[in-house]
What we know:
Helix content is 46%, strand content 17%. It is α+β, with helices and mostly antiparallel strands and 263 residues long. It has two domains: 2-70, Phosphorylase Kinase, domain 1; 75-262, Aminoglycoside 3'-phosphotransferase, Chain: A, domain 2 (Alpha-Beta Complex). The strands form three sheets. The protein has a five-stranded antiparallel beta sheet with strand order 1-2-3-5-4. The protein has a three-stranded antiparallel beta sheet with strand order 6-8-9, with helices on one face. β1 and β2 (21-26) form a beta hairpin. It is globular, with a radius of gyration of 20 Å. Keywords: Kinase, Transferase.
Amino acid sequence: xxxxxxxxxxxxxxxxxxxxxxxxxxxxxxxxxxxxxxxxxxxxxxxxxxxxxxxxxxxxxxxxxxxxxxxxxxxxxxxxxxxxxxxxxxxxxxxxxxxxxxxxxxxxxxxxxxxxxxxxxxxxxxxxxxxxxxxxxxxxxxxxxxxxxxxxxxxxxxxxxxxxxxxxxxxxxxxxxxxxxxxxxxxxxxxxxxxxxxxxxxxxxxxxxxxxxxxxxxxxxxxxxxxxxxxxxxxxxxxxxxxxxxxxxxxxxxxxxxxxxxx
Length: 263
């Protein structure tokens, strides 16, 4: 492989949708290698949010190859996502002004409420668009659009909060990885993904109380609104993958959320 020759490392593909990630081995050394990762990775490495960046190299075909320390550990289980440490690392990202300045310098995407709503309509398959429950949900989010945050209040958001993107090292350090979806947006964007994907909707209020997020009614309605939009995105994803079991489970969750929001 040309990439192996240029990098000097033997590459072993790591599972993932992009096919850009590898374990690199050379003698007894191991590194995590990725093609065309965001330049933002260097800032994340400095703040200890992602594993240490070792080097960056441009290959002959114009690709950029980044190498990070290989972290012995594991990704989190789904039933560990409620842990306070998960929210805390997300809060660290949201609270970092240096990360925000860096992402703005790199031309990072600013995601507004209306952008998120319009994105939910893009490529929506006809059978989803015509589904009564999804139609009701789309009407609800359109009619209850929250007030937009100003640019100063927006923060760096990971954009794809998943147990697969949280790595717990053997020395008990939690890292947030895979930053291909990073945006500047409302903090509700990340928190609602975590909540929608891993917390029982009937326990949302008590969980938000525990992490001390969205303390008043207006802000709580806002994080619920974001949760519904994220759930619609997940429904689209499962439908595209023809994963109808997960899609049906998400429809049941959507019904529960709609009932809570209307009440």
